[in-house]
Amino acid sequence: MNHISKFIEYIDSVKRYSSLTVKSYVSDLNQFEKFLLLNLDLTLKDVKTQNIKAWISHLVSKGYDKNSVNRKLSVLRRYYRFQNNNNFFKGNPTKNIISLKTKKKIPEFASKEDLNKLFDNNFFLEGYIGERDKTILQMFYYTGMRLSELINLEVNDISFYQKYIKVTGKRDKQRLIPLLDSHLNDLKKFISVRNDNFKNNSQYLFLNHNGKKLYPKLVYRIVKLYISKVSTITKKSPHTLRHAFATHLLNEGADLMAIKEILGHSSLNSTQIYTHTSYENLKKVYNLSHPRGSE
Length: 295
What we know:
Elements: H1 3-14, H2 19-40, H3 49-61, H4 66-85, H5 112-120, H6 127-143, H7 147-151, E1 158-159, E2 164-168, E3 174-178, H8 181-197, H9 216-230, H10 238-251, H11 256-263, H12 268-271, H13 273-289
Antiparallel strand pairs: 1-2, 2-3
Helix pairs in contact: 1-2, 5-9, 6-8, 6-10, 10-13
């Protein structure tokens, strides 16, 4: 087993990273290994700090944005830390590498008005597919869960009595998200239609037309289709609804720590990006409301 394989086995089996994250790590490490071989005639074990700096310069020259470069650099840091801690390699060439400076992007999200229009009007098809699509959109916006979390939801994760849903997040960490009464009623209706259509006793809550578990690209297409009907925002993805959930809660006065727990963030730093969005909304209201705001 080579050094990349050992590391991938570690993040997959021990750290329990998602399959998408593992796939991304493999791609980044293979890309770096190929760069070393073709341009510097080096292996991963021979790398020095200046070689990583050369790779960063190469990525920037190829048009990679700074966030992508920093993400790839983060993969290398974890890789070399693992090799060093396990005495596979001597030293850590990423130790003195500084990430590229980036501007923090304020997340793009759909407005309350647009989402109310989506759920209050008859945009969804009749039958199972329409009920499923509506319930998927509701689940993203009413709970703020991630795409991978939604796909892996099971029917038994919903507690109608205690009014919560159990979500399994990154690294198999579980959390409970409270559910609105109206949402619970819609879920009961959806599950009834689902069970009438499929007799295969699949444990997964959301199924495709063949009764199989959903896959990410299908969910992306569903979200993009319906968000396009009510909003002109550029990015129309499940994460857009997660951003909307967090931002709308914050704008209504919800506690930041409570939002952190619902979103499943391990650090408050990840949640604080929504305070920037809330500030932008506050600034807009101030400029519109202040007697001198129009001057």
